[in-house]
Every structure is written in structure tokens, then in C-alpha cells.
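Each lists chain and fold; for instance:
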Amino acid sequence: MGSLSQLGAKPCLVIGRAGMDLYADPPGTAIEDTTRFTTALGGSSANIAVALTRAGGKAALLTCVSDDAVGRFCLTQLDHYGIDRTHVRSIAGEARNSLAVVESRLENCQSVIYRNGAADFQMSMQDVEAVDYTRFSALITTGTVLASEPSRTAAFRAFDLARAAGLPLIFDVDYRPYSWASAEEASQVYSRAAALCDVIVGNDVEFGFMAGDFEKGLEKARSLIAEGAQIVVYKMGEKGAITFSRGAEIKTGIFRTATLKPTGAGDAFLGNLVASLARGNGLQQAVLHGSAAAAIVVSRVGCAPAMPTREELDRFITFHNGPTLA
């Protein structure tokens, strides 16, 4: 297992998709009623990378994008946010970039995801073996990377190479049923990945899914510490989170805001959790930083552009009444 003490010394390497998000405009408009959209960088891994950089850290992305206008939009946006895209490969042919059409509303929020022939699933063994892992302080991935081949095998190869270089592995479960051939396959692959990782973050539904029984999700999260993980965060929505580490369990609440939409919270949480740990903060404070960032993001339009800067996060925490437990 890699040491989390080295976080911050070098950039984090994030594996997974970058995409284009189209938000119905103005906020509150249903997709079927709108005549205009605003664009933003999207994709869970790209969002995490943005969260890290906005919080003062450094990040690089490892993925594939389509060699077309949408893929080039993603590359331009990665440059805009200061994310190293040395290991982002453009691919020709029929593969297409991830595209999401989304609403900025809380009730009955619709999100239409286009993932047929997804370019990011074409990440190969050659892509991950071309990386010098000693340049990085951690490897971060989301569960979406594992949903299809050749991306799945390549990702597990990246795990091996990163561990050989002494990097901690950080895993956001991020279960998206539409990406998987079956729930059984997803459960098996997620369990395999979680057993290799130092930090695992997911919500109660995702851990219940991994356990094969929703009622056993908390038990599953706790068991991962016994199996070798250093940190496991079990998120419970408005009920806050329970964070497990070796010898400790920490319960934290949420920061309540005027929520505009439900998307982007998980990416903001993970990116700011890692950024806070990299600054040398304790685990409880790092979890609260992640929770505060999530609260900010759901109150703004978009995901990547909604990620708070470190100064915005500090100001939010200073003037907020504080986290509450449901």
C-alpha cells in the first residue's frame, strides 16, 4: 500500500473520462422546454481533477477523447483549468466522447448521458504503461473506468504500476448502472478494485451494492479497513458521512445550502478531501472540507466550473453555521 503522507509533493494522476456537459438554460428549465444550453467540462474524473486544481493542488488526467470537435472542447477546457493532459490521447474512428445533457433543478432533475462507443473506454495497456508513475503522488480513479474493456484491464495494470512506484490508490466507487453489462459483473469488479486501494469513497447505496445487500453496506465499508485500506468514507446523503480509518470512526454532518441541482457533489467531495489531506490537515477536517465543497457545487450551475477555489472554500466555512447531522 502507498503512503498518504506523500500527497501534495507531486501532482495526482487521475484516470477516467472527460466529457462535455450541456446545461439547459436558464437554470430551472426542463430539457424538453429549453431552446439554449450552456457548455461546461464534465466527466467524473475530469471534475475531480478540476476540484483538485481549484483547491490549490496539481493534477494530470489519463484518458482518451474523440478526435473531433467535442474531444477538442475537452482538451481546451483541461488547459483552461491547468490540468496536465500529457497522457490524454485523441482517437479517430467511430468512438465518441462522453456527452451529458443536464438540468439545473433539484426536483425531477433529468440527466441524459450519451455513452455509446465511449472514447474513454478505449484507454489501453499502452496508454497506462507509457506513464512515469514516479512523477505523481497518488493515483485516483472512479468506478466508471472499470465498466468496459480495454479500459478495465488497463486500469488494473495502472494500479499495479502505481503500487510498484509506491503511490497510494484512491478509488471513488461512482457506480453508474448504465455503463455495466450486469450488476453482478460490476459488484465483482468493484470488490476486486476496492481490495487493492488505500482510500475508498462511496455512498451507502454503492457500498450496499458491493456487499450484495443494502443492509450490509456499512459492514462492507468497515471490513475494507480490516482488509488493508487506510481510509474508507461511507457517505449517507443528508445524514452526513462515517469515515473509517485504522482504529477510528468519525461521523460528520453536511453543510446546508440553497441547492440548485444534485450533480457534481461527489466529485467535489473527493477532490477537496484529497487536496485537504495533501495540505497536512487531519482526516476529520479533510472530510469536512470535502463536504463543504460538495455543498457549494450543488448550489451552482455546472460541475467543473462550480468547483470552489481554496479561498472560496475557506470563506464559505468561516461564515457558514457549520455542518449539521440529520
In short: The chain has ten helices and 13 strands. Residues 10 and 137 are 5 Å apart (CA to CA).
